[in-house]
Amino acid sequence: MDYIVEENLKIRDMLKEDAQIIYNTYLSYNWHPVLNTYLNYFEETLQNKRKVFIAEYKGKVKGLCTLVLEPEEGPYGKKGIPEIVDLCVFFDKHNLGIGSKLLDTAESEAAKTSNMVYLGVGLHSGYGAAQRLYIKRGYIPDGSGVWWNGKNLGQYEDCTNDDELVLFLAKEL
After folding, report:
1. Confidence of residue 2 (pLDDT cuts 50, 70, 90)
2. 3-class secondary-structure state, position 157
3. 110 closest CA partner among 84, 131, 75, 140
4. Which of 69, 102, 129, 170 has CA 20 to 30 A from 82's CA?
5. Are 109 and 103 within 8 A, CB to CB?
6. Treating both helix axes as pointing N-terminal to C-terminal, what angle do 98-110 and 128-136 enclose, rounded to 10 degrees?
7. What is the C-alpha to C-alpha distance for residues 77 and 67, in angstroms, rounded to an integer?
């Protein structure tokens, strides 16, 4: 399904072959992707557990955003509130509004089943642009504090400032 079709940009559902493109792109950034993560995203779309929105810019995959429809974990886990996960616009297409279009799509789909959506954003500087984007779009901290490795981090507990250290933000739709 196509969600947004503009002159140079299309937001559409994930195809199985997109998994390899995402993996290869992340690998080129010297990240440590796992191909099965993106193949599982596709399988979860077939099971109606997750929606995966792919951004195509001039016919090439340039980003993605997923929406977990019934999350099991996090501050809203098992409460029927969808969670936005893994928003990423490939580096060569930053600052073109693609991330906002992906979020528009995810929020629109979330609104079909809930009056709220949430997400976790990393706390290190690599997530600075995302932090600013979410706040500008009306996401606010949910009040549960910092989470690390999928668990709420207690006061004065030790952690590592890695990709697993997140703050959850929520938005009313």
Report:
1. very high
2. coil
3. 84
4. 129
5. no
6. 50
7. 13
